[in-house]
Amino acid sequence: MNASDQPSMGLCVKLPLPQAELQELIDKAKDWSLMNGACMRSKKNFNRDTLQFAPFILIPSSFPRTEFNRACEIQIILNELMHRVAHDYEFLKETLKETIKVDTFTRKLFDIYETVHSEGFTQKVSLGMLRSDLMLDTSCPKERGCSQNHKPYCCWKQVEINTIASGFGWLGPAATKLHKYILQELDRTNELKNLPDNNALQGLCTGMIDAWNIYNDPKAVILFIIENVTYNICDQRFHEFEIRRLNPSIKVIRRTLSELAVEARLGPKKELIVGEQTVAVVYFRCGYEPSQYPTEKEWDVRLLIERSLTIKSPSIQYHLAGAKKVQQALAKPGVLARFLKDEETVQQIRGIFTGLYALDFDEHGENAIDMGIANPERFVLKPQREGGGNNVYGNNIKTALESMKDQQERSAWILMDRIQPPLQRNYQIRAGSDTDTEMKEVVSELGIFGVLIGDEKNIIINRQVGHMLRTKLASADEGGVASGLGACDSPYLTD
Ligand SMILES: Nc1ncnc2c1ncn2[C@@H]1O[C@H](COP(=O)(O)OP(=O)(O)O)[C@@H](O)[C@H]1O
Ligand SMILES: [Mg+2]
Fold first, then answer.
1. Cβ contacts of 385 within 8 Å, gap of 6 or more
2. Pair 283, 401 in one domain
3. What are phi and psi of 252, to 5 degrees?
4. What's an example of a GO molecular-function annotation for this chain (predicted)?
5. Do residues 302 and 257 both lie within one domain?
6. Residues 243, 390: one domain?
7. Among 390, 418, 446, residue at a domain's last position
């Protein structure tokens, strides 16, 4: 479907805005972002000492209230589901069996899991900091009986669930604050009630502090594992500042996997020790793609961390539970019942899945390959990767499927129905752009944050803690903000 064929949704402010008012508003909003830390480091003109505002959408995108509330409510079940999946060794092994034969990266993660599973986990408690990503779908049948009054009719479908490095805990709430300011500037204070509260930063940091308390060593630190160069720096430092604010005695340290390969060791009780500091909690903001493990040393240190007493977000089993192959396996008929107790909950979760297809060497796999080749525009083809820029779209799906049809490699990929989100028209504001004042057709992706702490038997904490919205040009396949295609946004709830 072309962007122009898709149904569109209205906004809270009548657009276009008059040019003079628009330019003034954009300038103010840019300065608000700069002065409140809704920022990033530039990839194009990288300078560690300089920030620029993160790209943003000028007017908050509309989102049906019932669907937003449903997404927040369901997060608790998704958290529990992911926790159960992460603790089901047989399920993970069976699900990833074919994938790890051909995908070295997933295999290396799985090898670490096998090792710590067979040795017995030193730390039984995991800290899950999850983000479930979803899009409204205008092509879904009216099965959930919701948002019937909303034009166009749409209900949301899950894009994926992230179990590692779930970002935008800061930029999500920052966009809500920015939009509150913008609506005030536009004399729309009566609309502020439709921008839902967003305490994602506090919620995620409270989760880390809860885990730190469980570890129970007042001198121990929290370790953020980071990339060699962090562009999305505000979205990490604000977590660090928030932890200090919530508990002034907790120190956060930051290291790359390569630095840890030199500095990290295990103490007498298998504590993770970095330099002289014991680590209570590890938060991976990196470690989800092959380039982040340039040598075997980074893999060795990942194993060392998994063997240690530190509480990990994610632990290796949580990391694997977030694989796209696992998402596809969960969508197979009958599978959810293994993890969720009652039929009603199973139906609720089934309702958020869109079609997901394995590409194994069997009848189902052959059918999926044929489907993808015949109608590539109806699907997204995905490998077992995170972080954006890895999926295949449109006609490239046809080419990719034709070339991998007879290769073992195909079982490392999944095919997914392409979600058709409603269009909106809005202004996308980017540093250095000269087209800020032009209205563009855009589509949004909502992320809901969840925090869970528990071990195989017990769930100690299970919370929904906030949200983030990313909006991209309707013509773009992907919408990563750090990758340069998407922009920070916040939902304006409509009835
Ligand atoms: N089924 C889908 N329908 C429409 N767009 C999708 C779909 N799956 C992914 N996308 C787009 O591609 C982006 C990246 O896909 P995702 O599955 O989230 O992978 P990653 O782990 O790289 O973030 C999403 O943010 C979304 O914009
Ligand atoms: Mg994603």
1. 105, 288, 289
2. no
3. -110, 135
4. ATP binding
5. yes
6. no
7. 418
Cα radius of gyration rounded to whole Å, the chain: 22
CATH number, residue 368:
3.30.1490.50
Atom of ligand 1 nearest to the CA of 486: 27
Closest alpha carbon to 378 in 146, 142, 137, 156: 137
Q: 442 and 327 in one domain? A: yes
What residue type is 263 in one-letter code? E
Could you identify the residue written with the tokens 């092509």?
A: 139
Residue 151 structure tokens: 């034009």
Ligand 1: residue of 380, 397, 444 to mutate (most ligand atoms within 8 A of CB) is 380
CA dist 290 and 293 (Å) reads 6
What number of helices (H) and strands (E) belong to the chain?
Answer: 15, 22
- State the burial class of residue 54 (Cβ atoms within 10 Å of its Cβ: 0-12, 13-18, 19+): buried
445 lines ligand 1 (CB under 6 A): yes
133 lines ligand 1 (CB under 6 A): yes
**Coil, strand or helix at 178:** helix
Is 426 found in the same domain as 402? no
Q: Which residues pair with 34 in a beta bridge?
A: none
Total count of domains within the chain: 2
Q: Do residues 156 and 260 share a domain?
A: yes
* CA-proximal residue: ligand 1, atom 8 (nearest): 159
Six-digit token string for 239: 């977590």
- Using most ligand atoms within 8 A of CB, pick from 132, 134, 139, 159 the residue to mutate for ligand 1: 159
10-residue mean pLDDT series, the chain (495 residues): 60 93 98 98 95 98 96 98 98 97 97 98 98 92 57 88 98 98 97 97 98 98 97 98 98 98 98 98 97 98 98 98 98 97 95 96 96 98 92 96 96 96 96 94 97 98 98 89 86 95
Atom of ligand 1 nearest to the CA of 386: 21
State the binding site for ATP.
160, 324, 382-391, 393, 416-419, 445, 472, 478
Atom of ligand 1 nearest to the CA of 159: 8
Tell whether ligand 1 has an atom less than 6 A from the beta carbon of residue 489: no
> For residue 228, how far is its CA from the centre of ligand 1 (angstroms)?
25
Say whether 10 sits in a helix, a strand or coil. Answer: coil
Q: What separation in angstroms does the CA of 385 have from each of 354, 373, 381, 391, 416?
A: 19, 22, 12, 8, 14
With CA atoms as reference, report the closest residue to 322 among 81, 73, 72: 81
Domain limit, last residue, from 399, 418, 437: 418
- Site of tokens 């589901």: 81
- Does residue 96 sit in the same domain as residue 206? yes
Q: Give the domain extent around 360.
A: 355-418
Pocket test for ligand 1, best of 160, 418, 470, 471 (most atoms within 8 A of CB): 160
